[in-house]
Amino acid sequence: MTRTDWTRAEIAELFELPFTELVFRATEVHRAHHAAGEVQLCTLLSIKTGGCPEDCGYCSQSAHASTGLKAEKLMDADAVIAAAREAKAHGSQRFCMGAAWRSPKDKDIPALCDMVREVKGMGLETCMTLGMLTGDQAQALADAGLDYYNHNIDTSPEHYGAIIGTRTFQDRLDTLEEVRKAGMAVCCGGIVGMGESREDRVGFIHALATLPRHPESVPINALVPVKGTVLGDMWGEDKAIDDIEFVRTVAVARITMPRSMVRLSAGRESMSESTQALCFLAGANSIFTGDRLLTTPSAGDDADAALFAKLGLKALASDEPMRADSPSPRRGEGWGEGALPSSEPSNAEHPHPTLSLQGEGFRAAE
Ligand code: SAM
Ligand code: DTB
Ligand code: SF4
């Protein structure tokens, strides 16, 4: 049975285990619930960039930051659909659309629903992250076919006020409840490396693992320090989180939320291959692919394909344990055979690793 009654003391004890013992236990839990070596591929698109009224201290898109990012309008559906098509061609399984809003306006909902219908119609899983939602907005998006809603608690309840002043931890929980009531799956996690203490990381995982139902997806981001944000200026180029402590956080998320997909999210770009490999060993089984997250660069498909080949990882082909009762429309197609047309001209000179590593690189598990 999946536990939602974890105590803080139990979670603190997990964090304190000798590192190899903790990773060993996390691996055991991972293998009991998930196909080992299969990693879910998701692609992000910022459909409405910058000018956000919220003051999240980590975010390049906050109007309170001085990042020089230009505020843009909501993208046209056609441009979103083109990006989704490209993501699918590159083997992505889920398309996540993010908007720099405190909450969407009711007048935006029909356009957002159109995007959801089109992207879902392509056979991709759909995810959006648009800020706080009312019950009616959540229902409209769910009715249009939105599979997942991403809404992060970001950190522990105690540390939250040091990072964000324009909304409360409870506001986040309220939206998560509306998302659940509307029948969508929840993607909820947060960021490590924001100057929080170990105790805050314990509180962060505790808050997630004691939700009435665990989130189906748990993104664990390492802070991407962006110049002009409060936290980016505080940390500069320095790593605000020790790699081993990051892996510990992934492992504790895996152990306490055994059936959830744990996503190694932002921050992968500046992580060594060895640290990423440790994260996969500790139970991370989902990543963002492509050369961009929302506003910051990501490793890109070629680097990721090479990493998958080196580690012998494959694109997810099994059902997510928590979604097994309502399988997604598309399984078994990963970064693999057929993911890119072999006549793709841009690949002629620099073959995509998908194609050049057929049989051992990015491919769907059989
Ligand atoms: N505005 C919406 C919201 O806040 O829910 C959606 C977009 S917001 C960018 C989505 C999540 O991205 C945040 O909750 C945060 O966890 C993560 N994020 C944003 N900037 C980040 C950064 N610089 N480093 C790591 N994670 C970041
Ligand atoms: C999440 O937890 N991480 C993603 C997604 N949910 C929306 C966003 C990461 C953003 C990283 C910074 C940027 O690119 O702006
Ligand atoms: Fe706005 Fe979301 Fe960035 Fe906060 S994290 S400033 S709500 S876009």
Question: What small molecules accompany the polymer chains?
Answer: S-adenosylmethionine, 6-(5-methyl-2-OXO-imidazolidin-4-yl)-hexanoic acid, iron/sulfur cluster
Number of helices: 13
SSE sequence, one letter per element: HHEHEHEHEHHEEHEHHEHEHEH
- Relative helix content: 25-40%
Rounded to the nearest angstrom, the radius of gyration is 19 Å
The biggest beta sheet, please? 10 strands, parallel
Mean pLDDT: 88
Unreliable sequence segments: 327-366
Estimate the strand proportion: 5-15%
Question: Which quaternary structure do these chains form?
Answer: single chain
Gross morphology is: globular
Please count the beta strands (DSSP E, at least 2 residues each): 10
Coarse structural class: alpha/beta
What's this entry about, in short?
By secondary structure, the chain is of the alpha/beta class.
Please describe what this structure looks like.
The structure is a single chain. Helices cover 37% and strands 13% of the residues. It contains 13 helices and 10 strands. It has helices at 8-16, 19-33, 77-89, 109-121, 135-144, 157-163, 169-181, 198-209, 230-235, 243-256, 273-281, 301-311, 353-356, and strands spanning 38-48, 94-99, 125-129, 148-150, 185-187, 190-192, 217-222, 261-264, 286-289, 314-315. Helix 8 (198-209) links the parallel strand 6 and strand 7. Helix 4 (109-121) runs parallel beside helix 5 (135-144) and helix 8 runs parallel beside helix 10. The structure holds S-adenosylmethionine (SAM), 6-(5-methyl-2-OXO-imidazolidin-4-yl)-hexanoic acid and iron/sulfur cluster. The site of S-adenosylmethionine has 18 residues, from strand 6. 6-(5-methyl-2-OXO-imidazolidin-4-yl)-hexanoic acid (DTB) binds next to strand 2 and strand 7.
